[in-house]
């Protein structure tokens, strides 16, 4: 457990986290909602260890947190202008965008149906780590079926020795789930309305103004207390993304 609340002294903690991720180990980190458990997105055994630590399967691949908007071009393909507009307006922040993944990427996040869910979190510690590691697969720092961790200590109670490094950024700012937008189809659509409302998103992308009839049940406001928009089901050819593992486990979606 490393105290990261003081920017002047968090360097050694970030060093330990970087080294752990490089060897395929897991790290717990704060985000702009609650705590997440992270793995190197390009190390399949590390992603598998992340899912195993939570008690989840490959059918719920973790989203990927990125250090900057420019990372999207390297991870996604066929990215429309609407994504650029949304990212410029809302990143870093509570917006997850499901894109078509670059087919040449050497990673295995699970059963993604060729998609990837991307987000840039608005948290100093998370961004400092991502700046050094690059994209990380991140899911909520809790056992499946347990409440989301709002402190590093709570995460440690759930995950214990399965995680090599715990970065303590203080109590979570927590709150509302991120909003999930799927841009893999012919028209952008909101799969989950969370911290960012449909009306706010429609100011940037007017096509998001009205819900599609078949998505009406998926666009309810997200309850509080879920973190990073982790565990997003594949879009496009796969099932529509609904609540995250938090929703399925009775804790409210991310």
Query: Quick check: average pLDDT?
Result: 84
Beta-strand percent range? 15-25%
CATH superfamily: DHBP synthase
Q: Describe the largest sheet.
A: 11 strands, mixed
Stretches where pLDDT is under 50 for at least 5 consecutive residues are 215-254
Predict the CATH topology.
DHBP synthase
**Integer count of domains:** 1
Rg over C-alpha atoms, rounded to the nearest angstrom: 17 Å
What is the overall silhouette?
Answer: globular
Our count of helices gives 8
Per CATH, the class reads Alpha Beta
**Number of E strands:** 11
Ends distance = 25 Å
What is the N-to-C order of secondary-structure elements (H for helix, E for strand)?
EHEEHEHEHEEHEHEEEHH
Secondary structural class: alpha/beta
CATH architecture: Alpha-Beta Complex
Helix fraction bin? 25-40%
What does this entry show, briefly?
This protein is of the alpha/beta class and 254 residues long. The protein has helices spanning 11-22, 44-54, 72-75, 81-90, 124-133, 152-159, 198-202, 245-248, and strands spanning 2-3, 27-29, 36-40, 64-65, 76-77, 95-101, 115-119, 136-140, 165-168, 179-182, 189-192. The chain has a single domain (2-232), classed as DHBP synthase.
What would you say this structure looks like, in words?
Residues 11-196 form the YrdC-like domain. Pfam families: Sua5_yciO_yrdC. There is one protein chain. This protein has 254 residues and is an alpha/beta fold. The protein has a single domain (2-232), classed as DHBP synthase, CATH 3.90.870. The chain is built from eight helices and eleven strands. It has helices spanning 11-22, 44-54, 72-75, 81-90, 124-133, 152-159, 198-202, 245-248, and strands at residues 2-3, 27-29, 36-40, 64-65, 76-77, 95-101, 115-119, 136-140, 165-168, 179-182, 189-192. Strands 1, 2, 3, 4, 5, 6, 7, 8, 9, 10 and 11 form an eleven-stranded mixed beta sheet that branches. β10 and β11 (189-192) form a beta hairpin. α1 (11-22) packs across α5 (124-133). It starts with a strand and ends in a 6-residue tail after the last helix. Residues 215-254 have low confidence and may be disordered.
């Amino acid at each position: 457990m490393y105290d990261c609340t003081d920017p002047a002294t968090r360097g050694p903690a970030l060093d330990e986290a970087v080294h752990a991720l490089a060897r395929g180990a897991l790290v717990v980190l704060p985000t702009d909602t609650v705590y997440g458990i992270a793995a190197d997105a390009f190390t399949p055994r590390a992603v598998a260890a992340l899912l195993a630590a939570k008690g989840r399967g490959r059918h719920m691949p973790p989203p990927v947190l990125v250090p900057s908007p420019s990372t999207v071009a390297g991870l996604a393909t066929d990215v429309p202008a609407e994504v650029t507009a949304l990212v410029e307006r809302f990143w870093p922040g509570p917006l997850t965008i499901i894109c078509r993944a670059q087919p040449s990427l050497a990673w295995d996040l699970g059963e993604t149906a060729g998609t990837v869910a991307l987000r840039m979190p608005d948290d100093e510690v998370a961004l400092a780590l991502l700046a050094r590691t690059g994209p990380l697969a991140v899911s909520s720092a809790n056992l499946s079926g347990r409440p989301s961790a709002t402190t590093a200590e709570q995460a440690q109670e759930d995950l214990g020795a399965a995680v090599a490094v715990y970065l303590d950024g203080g109590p979570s700012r927590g709150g509302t789930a991120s909003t999930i937008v799927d841009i893999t189809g012919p028209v952008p659509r909101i799969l989950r309305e969370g911290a960012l409302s449909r009306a706010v998103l429609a100011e940037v992308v007017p096509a998001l103004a009205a819900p599609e009839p078949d998505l009406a049940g998926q666009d309810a406001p997200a309850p509080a207390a879920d973190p990073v928009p982790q565990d997003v089901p594949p879009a496009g050819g796969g099932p529509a993304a609904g609540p995250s593992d938090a929703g399925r486990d009775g804790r409210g979606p991310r």
